[in-house]
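DOMAIN: structural biology
WANTED: fold as tokens
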Amino acid sequence: MRAVVLREVGGPDKLVLSPNTPNPVPAADEVLVRVRASAVCGRDLIDRRGGFPLMKLPTILGHEFAGELEAVGDEAARAGFAPGDRVANLHRPACGECPRCVGGEELLCERAHQSFGHTVDGAYAELVVAHHRALVKIPAPVPFEDASTLMCTAGVAYQALASRARLVAGETVVITGASGGVGTAAIQVARHLGARVVAVTGSPAKAAALAELGAHEVLVSPDGRFEDDVKTRLGGPVDVALELTGSATFGSALKSLRRGGRLVVVGNIDQAKVSIKLGALILWSHTIAGSASCTRQDLERVLDLAASGALRAVIDRKLPLRYAAEAHALLEARAVFGRVVLIP
């Protein structure tokens, strides 16, 4: 098969197309997926630079994909999968047996060691092997390209806003990094939950598109210091902040909150440290939480929203698989609105 292989960490040039990569073979509890679309995420850039210390090398990146099943192991077949099924993936397969899984906390699974692009090969390839518990069937109306993006954008946003932030109708949320894949999905998810949405971007060129996507207010803040603008524009602070950038905007996101407000961190683009004044945290009774990935139920929910037309996958462009390095360069230059999708 053709695959884009990362043999050593570094710049985008380290992503090299290999035309004769051996086809993977699924085990009894796995399936073989013919990849029809593989989305490129900001995490892929971090992985490529060596930000995940346990990543195997060489590896094939790509933890967001959609495709058709070509081969199905016996255990996967008993779980209800068959050749021809259209599927999208979760980040990793929960075991379903550990105390966390039994307690309904599958995202905290103690045995979920498989991670696409980290410990097992991902989907910058024509074929990928996946455990059946890492897959969800795609509704017929949803194209492969859209489905490939929804887990790590809308699914992640739904988990962060509905479960972690407990955002409810009538509240106001500020979303940093709003023009990225998670940001464009989070605007729509927050609107679906009945919230008022303030989108923050560093690019004036992206402001109009964010408003068209459903943001009630759009703040352009190249320096990441927007808390005064939030309060001026809205007449006061917000209930929830969704932090999708990291250190560059974390301080302003926290300062934008009302007393008792909630901040949920999903993005960490530059991986720099942040400082927090504990006295202010105590005085203002703020809650700061991390949020990673999404549950099977989250992904099924956003796929259904997409199938009904209530949610739109925002795709900046589609590129052939051999242009994976160019896709990474576009993301690093912040020249993308939504997701870039690779087509094998």
The chain is about 30% helix and 25% strand. Residues 144-164 form the longest helix (21 residues).
